[in-house]
Amino acid sequence: NRLHATDVTSSSFRLVWPKLLSQETGYYSLEYGPRADPARRSTQQVSGAHSSLVLSDLAPETTYEVALIPESNVHYFPPQTTRVTTLAEEISPVQVLISESGPRSFHVSWAPVLDSVASYQVLYGPLPGNSVKVLQVDGRHNSTVVEHLAPNTTYLVTVTAIYRSGKEKSLSAKACTQEGERGQ
Q1: How far apart are the C-alpha atoms of 68 and 79, rounded to whole Å?
Q2: Which residue, 51, 67, 111, 157, is most buried by CB atoms nearer than 10 A?
C-alpha cells in the first residue's frame, strides 16, 4: 500500500499511491528524474483527489527516482519514494529489401535482427486487392523467399516483428514480379 508503478513500458509508467489526501485537504508534489542525472528532475503538482498518474515521454532502459510528497494542510505525511526502470525500446524493422525478383517469386530481407524478437511475420498480397498470405519466420532469420506469385504484379509486403514482450512492430515495402514468358 505504498507508491508503486504499474504498466511500465519503454517510455512511460503509471504511478499508483494510497489515497492520503482529498481535493479539500491538499495536493501532492511529484518529483521524478533519471537516477543517473539528478539535474534533470521534473516536479509537478497533482490534485489531492488523484491516486494515480501516468508519466510519459521517458527514456528507455532508464531507472527513474520518484518521490511523492503529500502537501497536506491537516496532517504531516512523510514523502513516499520508489524506483522504476523503463523497458528496452522495441525497435521496428528499419528497412525491408526486395531482391532477386522473378516472375513468380522474390526474396525479402530486413534489418536489424534483434534478440528481443521471437519471430517475424511476412504478409504479402497483390495490389490492389485484399487477399493476403502469411509466412512465419524464426526470429533468428532476417530473410525469406516468397513464391507462387503472379507475374507482372505489384505486391505489398509487410514484415512484422513479434517481440518476446508480446508487442508487434511492422514495416511495409512494395515488390513487383517480372513479366512471365509468353505462352505460360
Answers
A1: 6
A2: 157
